[in-house]
Design brief:
This protein is of the alpha/beta class. 37% of the residues lie in helices and 14% in strands. The chain has helices at residues 6-10, 25-33, 73-83, 97-106, 113-126, 144-153; strands at residues 2-5, 42-46, 57-59, 62-66, 91-93, 109-111. It has a six-stranded mixed sheet, sandwiched between helices. Helix 3 (73-83) runs parallel beside helix 4 (97-106). It starts with a strand and ends in a 7-residue tail after the last helix.
Length: 160
């Protein structure tokens, strides 16, 4: 099982190629489902509660879920690992040191967000064009999220 700290991964810049930059949680689910991790049960865990306008996201064995009101994704990840009867079969993707320590104590494998994104980028580059789940993304103007990601990447403050 794969457990991904969504916002840890989504806020890493400078690793994904431009056509994959500016992902949101559903895009991340698409990318995970099309990668080496797609044949494993995977949970992409976000802080807070699901926005009302967003539908539930499931891509094969990959689903996006939310920690719930007043609970962080970090706390939810730690609980999932602690409550597992097979923690050695879990891979946790997070840069949070407390989450990493907690997972290691239970025997879970730990993967940093940067390394995880490198794996996803490698898998996306190797996938045949017809299999690329994000190929359906529009190649028109950038979304606001993509613009924000590029501004952060280049260290540009738009208020200046």
């Amino acid at each position: 099982m794969l457990i991904v700290d969504a916002y840890n991964v989504l806020h890493v810049t400078g690793i994904l190629p431009p056509e994959l930059a500016g992902l949101d949680a559903p895009d991340l689910a698409d990318l995970v489902a099309a990668s080496r991790w797609g044949r494993h049960q995977a949970v992409i865990l976000c802080d807070g509660t699901r926005p009302k306008e967003m539908r539930a996201v499931e891509r094969g064995l990959v689903r996006v879920t939310y920690a719930g009101g007043g609970r962080s994704a970090d706390a939810a990840i730690e609980a999932m690992v602690n409550e597992s009867s097979h923690p050695r079969r879990i891979t946790v993707v997070s840069n949070d040191r407390a989450v990493q320590r907690s997972g290691k104590r239970r025997g879970a494998k730990i993967l940093g967000a940067d390394e995880f994104l490198r794996q996803l980028a490698t898998d996306a580059a190797r996938a045949p064009r017809s299999k690329r789940s994000l190929a359906k993304r529009e190649h028109g103007p950038l979304t606001d999220k993509q613009v924000d990601a590029w501004l952060r990447y280049f260290g540009i403050d738009p208020t200046e």
